[in-house]
Structure formats: structure tokens, C-alpha cells
Amino acid sequence: MPSGEYDPDAVEPRWQRRWVDEETYAYPDDPVDPNTVFSIDTPPPTVSGSLHMGHLYGFTLQDFVARFERMNGGTTFFPFGYDDNGIASERLTEGELDIRHQDFERREFQAKCREVCAEYEEQFTENVQSLGVSVDWDHTYQTIEPRVQRVSQLSFVDLYDQGREYREKAPAIWCPECETAISQVETEDDEQDSHFHDISFPIVRDDATGVEDADTAETFTISTTRPELLPACVAVFVHPDDEENRYLVGESAEVPLFGHEVPIIADERVDMETGSGIVMCCTFGDQNDIEWYQVHDLDLRVAIDESGHMTAVAEEYEGMHSGEARETIVADLDDAGALEERRAITHTVNVHERCGTSVEFLVTEQWYIEMLDKTDEYLDIGREMEWSPEKMFTRYEHWVEGLQWDWLISRQRSSGIPFPVWYCAECDEEIIAEKADLPVDPLSDDPPVDACPACGHEAFEPEDDVLDTWATSSLTPLINAGWDWDEEAEEFTMEHPELYRFDLRPQGHDIISFWLFHTLVKCYEHTDEVPFEETMINGHVLDENREKMSKSVGNVVEPETVLEEFPVDATRYWAAGTAVGDDFPFKQKDLRAGEKLIRKLWNASKLVESLAPEPFPAEPADEDFRELDRWLLAELDDEIERITDLLGNREFSKARDGLRSFFWNTFCDDYLEIAKQRDDDAAAYTLRTAHRRFLKLFAPLLAHVTEELWHDMYADAVGSAAVVDAADGASDSVHLADWPD
């Protein structure tokens, strides 16, 4: 061993480069016994920025599993990918280059996205490698690369052939900022300040001759947070049990400022406790409006367009942004005497999780994957997996039970994988690409037929929408297993069938409804089986006050700052400090504790080497062991069994704390202190045997210092004349050595 203190600034980068250069963690090219494989379906990070503490924490937890399973007998498949085909990457490009995707032809803008994403991916790769994550860098992918485009389009074609996809013109969730339809999973609740507006609606009555008599009209009050939707009002609803207001049912009302008449209808979905208990239905303000529109066959009045501006239906307010129109309409209602009261409130608003913009509901033509008919089935397949921690299944269950929409998979954006679809210009017949031709881009490629099979017309219109990014990233198990269509056999095959189903899906709890659910749906529909044996769900990193980190609040901890001050192994020690699935605060004291353990392991190793110079001393005769030697090795056997069970159950915190306590107290403070006074073969054998096993036990957690110690104290002796314990599994790398029995 080198003299002096441990120098992580020199040691850690050296091993990180060497692991990559020597392909230490490469998955073998030769056929692998499926019974020995441990496959991990790693989450491809979105290419939309730099490394944050959540990345550092999540990647490190994945690496704990990969390193443990690799040493514990599994031929480990640990790939890495980048999700770079969706709105996030598109918005990143727009922000970086100060452009708008609408101002460019699609292919031109996509080229710009590739350039920006390539720069970020290169930096992101360096950042992940600097964490010492044992990824197989020969197995990487991008969700926009041609191979993945083929898999994504194959998925579309297969689901279409199964009858699980359909195109429909219907109300859809729309983001006016991103100007695209989005799915239910891409919305989140946001508490916002707003106002309730009490607006007076006249009742329109007919006299005995059938002529309207405005002089005898009465009024009622509707409370709304969205007066800008008045021009889209198509009905008024009253709860049938509302004794105070049910006299209105069957009458008509006049919409203030706009003058058109709408029917007043009874419906049980009215919330009598909110506002005045009378609700206007506007096409469309929310999910209830959509349901009322469909059930009661109401008119369609679209007042807000794709960019969030008012349409011609809004008459004099046409062209205003909806926010500006709201204030102008409120002022005009006040001038007309129709505004009874305006009061400030805080309420929950549905926003697009990518940009924070309040969503609208527009009638557009979109592609969907049918899901609502199989929610019970999707709950059942979710139960087939092992959940770490088990409590996270509840989140999955609540999401599936709360589904209100089929999965909307089309996006009106430029960056993404094209739909492999054309339409007959005469009859709108859908023309789907042949599997052998994929990937295709209908904007530049010809359809697979010369004439429409339905009507014989020879002109076609290409689909110019792109697939939702989750429609592709939900296929990561199939992408990594090499799923493809075998034209000759006329069936789907896998290049690496031994990987599927995958042993582990690690991810954050915030994307259970995004990535996990959609992956289960897609892979199940394609293979008729659940794609994972187990899912490991990690929590979020909070600040020291247990508040969510936010740039606006100023409490964000940057990984670069942490790694400049502390060794990577200290951050790995910190990452193992909480139960998987729990959110936990970032505390520097945990990193300092990690530093102390690294120094303790280094100094104890130097002492072991001085007391027992031979790396692999021969095992003494049974009678030469003292009771203390037997006791330590027996206690270590128990500790190995306990640590093995804990790591297998993903209880990293208990494993870390128990191992640290046993090493520091039992081995260092007790046995090592006594062994200083001895000079015999039994002590030397016990010291070296215990030490080698400690390095292995610490290796998944403290990856760099254990590799440095293993290399200096054991790897150079492998293959020499030294006597090696056959069960020791000595190797050039501690991370490829056998896990101790």
C-alpha cells in the first residue's frame, strides 16, 4: 500500500476512467445462461438539463444493486439510455437557441435538437461516470436513434393490428403554451390564486303567446373562476336534489354579454356545496363539461384556440389571450351590472407538468391507446411484481383506479418519432406502414400502397404528428432485449431473450404513473407478460428543512458543489442512509460520516498489511486458532448472512449502518487492537480473511476506496505462488470477485 493518507481526488477519477476503458462491467457478447442473468431496466434520463441531486441519489441506488448482484453470482446487464425525443428536449433546444419550433421545417428543427441534445448527453455521460456508476457503456441508447424509432413504430403497428389503437376527433387535454395535446399523466395539480366571480344570469321566459318577455325575466347567480369561458357556455346545470334552485330546470338562461340562450338541465354531478350550487357548462372547462357535453348532446362552442387566444365565438374579445380576456370580460360584466361580487380564493388548477401552464380542453383529432377497458387487468399485473417498498403499490393502484382517459399518444410537435401512417386524400382511410419498412417518416417516405384499398384513390396525406415520448420510453425493456419483427418467421423475436423479463425496474416515485404504468401496459400488450420481476422505487432528496428543493426558493443543492467538497464514496455512503422509497433531507453530516468511514477503512487496511504481510496466508491447523479468532470469523459469518439478506431486500440503510458498526466496533476496536499484540499464523490468517471479506461487503457502497485497497493488497497477488482460499474468488477487481459466503 502507498504510505500516507487516502487521496480520493487522485484515486476516484483514475478508477472511473479505468473501469470505462477496460470495460469492467461489460455484458458478455457470448450466449449467457438465463438462470445466471440479472437484468436492470434503467430509467433513461430526460435530456433537458444538468445532473441534479435526484439523479445522483437514484443512479447510486441502482448501482448498489448492480454491484451486489454482479458479485453475488449474476451476469449483470446494466445499460444506460437518454430520453431525447420529446417536448422536454424540444423546449431545451428552443431555450438554448432562442427559437420556436413552429418557425422551422420539421427535419430542420429536429437537426437542431440533435445538436443541442448531443452536447448535453456528452456532459451527462461524464457526470454519471464521475459517480462511479457501474454502467455497461457498450449498451447505451437514445430514444430518437433509428433502432429505437423502429421499435417504437413496431409497437404502434402491433397495437393497431390488435385493435388497441384508434384515431378520434374528441375533447382532449391541451397545453396552450406547448401547443400540443397531452395525456392525463402529463398533468399535475397546482395551487393558484384566483377569484370567484358571482355573475347574474337572466332567466328567459315565454308569455302565453310564445313571445319572450324580457321585462318579466328573473335572474340567478353562477359562481365561476373562468368568466372568459362565457362565450363557450352551452348549458346550465342544477342538482336534482337542490330544493332552492330546481325550479329553474326546464327553463332557459341568457348568457351575459353574449346574449345567446342555453337550456337549464338537472344533473347529479353538480356540486351543490361549491359557489351558488348552479354551474355553467362550457365546451370545455373541465372533465365534467366534457361528460355533460357527451351525455346531454350539447352544442359545441370553442372559445379558446390552440395557443390560448380567444376565437371568433368570443366576438369583440377575439384575438385576446385568455388571461387578458378574463379581466376585460370581468370589467364589462361590472359595467353591465351583471357582476355581483368578485372574491379572492386559492384553488387547485390542472397544469402541464413540463411548463406549468394551465391546460385547456379542445376538440382535436388524436391517436389513442385504449386502456379504460382493461384497468382491472392492469391492476392485476401490477400485483404480479415485487414492490420495494411494498407501500408504493398503493400509488400505482390509485393512479389506475383514477384513470379517466385512454392514453393520448399523438403530439403536435416537431421533435419526436413520426407516426408510420398516411391517409387517403379522398376517403381518409388509414394506411399503415409495413413492418419491414420501419422506421419511416411519412413526410418524406411513400406509403406502402399505390392506391387506397378502400376507394382506389391514388393521393395520400402524411400524418405529421409525432408520438408521445412516453410511447417510446415505455418500451425500454423491449429496446434493451432487442425486440424486433422477424419477417421470415412472421413473429416478434428478441436478440437477448435471457434478459426478459427484467429482474429490476428502478425509478422515482414521481413517475409511477408515467413510466412504470405505461411500460407495464405496452410490454404486457406486446408479450402477454409483466416485464419486471421487481420494481425499486426511490424517494426525493429534500433540503435540510425537509422542503422540496426549488430554484425559485433558493434551496437547491448542486451535485457539482457536493462532489467538489466530498469524495464520491462519501456521497454513496450518504445515499445509503435512508429507507428506499422515503423522501429524505440532504445533510452534510452524513457525508462527513462517510469520509470518516473511508479514512477508518484505509488506516485499518494499512494496519492489517503491517501485521499480516502475506496477502493470502495458508489456513493454520484447527488447533492453532484461538477462541477469539473463531469468535470473530463466526460473528463475521453471521454478519455476511445478514448483509446479504438486507442488500437482497434493498434495505441499504440497515446494511450500511450494521456493516459500519461491526467493522468499526467489533473488528477495529476489539479484534484488531488485540491482534496488535500477537505474531502468529492464526491471527494473520484471521486478519487477512476478515479484511478481504470486509472489502467485498463494502464494495457496493464504497466503490472506489475498496477497489484501490483490493488492487494494492490482493489483485497483484492473484496467480502468484500464494495460497488462495478457493472460496475467496480473488479477481483483478473487487467488483468482479465472488460475494463472500
Strand content is 15-25%
**Spatial gap, N to C terminus:** 26 Å
CA radius of gyration: 32 Å
The number of E-state strands comes to 27
Report mean pLDDT, rounded to a whole number. 91
User: What is the approximate shape?
Assistant: elongated
* Secondary structure category: alpha/beta
Low-confidence stretches: 208-216, 719-727
Main sheet characteristics: 7 strands, mixed
Overall helicity = 25-40%
DSSP helix count? 19
Fold and architecture overview:
Belongs to the class-I aminoacyl-tRNA synthetase family. Keywords: Aminoacyl-tRNA synthetase, ATP-binding, Ligase, Nucleotide-binding, Protein biosynthesis. Residues 629-740 form the Methionyl/Valyl/Leucyl/Isoleucyl-tRNA synthetase anticodon-binding domain. It catalyses: tRNA(Val) + L-valine + ATP = L-valyl-tRNA(Val) + AMP + diphosphate. The chain is built from 19 helices and 27 strands. The strands form 9 sheets. Strands 7, 8, 9, 10, 11, 12 and 13 form a 7-stranded mixed β-sheet that branches. Strands 6-5-14-16 form a 4-stranded antiparallel β-sheet. Strand 1, helix 2 (53-71) and strand 2 form a beta-alpha-beta unit. The longest helix is centred in the first third of the chain and has 24 residues, at 106-129.
Map the helices and strands:
Elements (H helix, E strand, L loop, with lengths): L7 H14 L15 E3 L13 H19 L3 E3 L2 E3 L4 H11 L8 H24 L10 E3 L3 H17 L2 E11 L4 E2 L5 E18 L14 E6 L8 E6 L13 E3 L6 E6 L11 E5 L4 H9 L26 H14 L3 E14 L7 E10 L5 H10 L1 E3 L4 H9 L5 E2 L1 E2 L9 E4 L5 E3 L27 E3 L3 E2 L1 H5 L2 H6 L1 E4 L4 E4 L7 E7 L3 H16 L4 E7 L2 E2 L16 H7 L2 H8 L8 E2 L2 H24 L15 H22 L3 H24 L5 H18 L4 H11 L28
Parallel strand pairs: 1-2, 3-4, 9-11, 15-25, 24-25, 26-27
Antiparallel strand pairs: 5-6, 5-14, 7-8, 7-10, 7-13, 9-12, 10-11, 14-16, 17-21, 18-19, 18-20, 22-23
Helix pairs in contact: 1-19, 3-4, 8-9, 14-15, 15-17, 15-18, 16-17, 16-18, 17-18, 18-19
